[in-house]
Design goal:
Blueprint lengths: L6 H7 L5 H16 L3 H13 L5 H13 L3 H14 L4 H11 L13 H10 L4 H24 L3 H34 L1 E5 L3 E5 L8 E6 L3 E8 L2 E5 L5 E5 L3 E3 L1
Antiparallel strand pairs: 1-4, 1-7, 2-3, 4-5, 5-6
């Protein structure tokens, strides 16, 4: 299954200089995918990305084409990028989980405590941009309520504005906090996908380092500090180590 983006959305989302090429490559990729020419579809989708355009649909379709050609790392990478842009899309989530079933490494993720579950349920219900829109909208409505309270003489309107003020203030503060938290996480917490069939994770950023564990294609890891040709990575269970930077791709 592939997703289709309308010409209008492409024209609005891409820059004026790159909209037409992106649209052309995207449609070429879809056409090749429908014909079963998955390698050609991959080339077309990647050409669309090189124009500077990106969308959940483009990453999703590229992920599908990579999956069809048994490129597990690239398929998961692009599904993750699609999921980042459209976190609640059922097709993206399903295909990502399906691809992850083929990953050799089954990492144990410690379950969060009750308060952590509640916080995560709230934090990720909207994307970073959606929290930003909500916070700005709520703030503008808050200003409108203040204007009504201060300048409008109608008793009914003033009463309604008074009742709505504090709930809207809470929504504004909460949305602003969640936008800031998600923005900080997006800027400072980076994840990557192992692209090589198998990599050795070392105790130090050097070829002389001792192998502490190994990972396989498609595994998602936390990316930390760089040191020359090596990057420090972390796993959900607390394990850390160094690996070659060329064997991982940032989501």
């Amino acid at each position: 299954m592939i997703k289709w983006t309308s010409t209008l959305l492409l024209l609005l989302a891409a820059t004026a200089a790159s909209a037409q090429p992106a649209q052309t490559f995207f449609l070429q990729g879809n056409d090749s995918f429908q014909k079963g020419a998955y390698a050609e579809a991959i080339t077309a989708y990647e050409n669309a990305l090189r124009t500077g355009y990106e969308s959940a649909e483009l990453y999703f379709n590229l992920g599908n084409a990579c999956f069809k050609t048994d490129q597990l790392g690239k398929s998961i990478l692009n599904y993750e990028r699609a999921h980042r842009l459209l976190p609640h899309d059922a097709d993206i989530t399903f295909n990502l989980e399906l691809a992850q079933l083929r990953v050799v490494d089954k990492l144990m993720i410690p379950p969060p405590h009750f308060l952590g579950k509640v916080w995560n349920a709230i934090q990720y219900v909207l994307s970073v941009n959606q929290w930003a829109i909500l916070s700005v909208t709520a703030f503008n409505l808050l200003i409108l309520l203040l204007i009504i309270r201060l300048l409008i003489s109608a008793h009914t309107l003033r009463t309604v504005a008074g009742y709505l003020f504090f709930p809207l203030l809470i929504i504004t503060l909460l949305a602003s906090l969640l936008f800031w938290v998600n923005r900080q996480e997006a800027n400072h917490l980076h994840h990557g996908i192992i692209m090589a069939h198998k990599v050795s994770v070392l105790s130090a950023p050097s070829a002389e380092g001792t192998e502490v564990f190994s990972l396989h294609e498609g595994t998602k890891v936390r990316m930390e500090e760089h040191n020359g040709a090596y990057i420090k990575i972390g796993l959900p269970d607390g394990k850390v180590g160094w690996m070659n930077l060329n064997d991982i791709e940032k989501i």
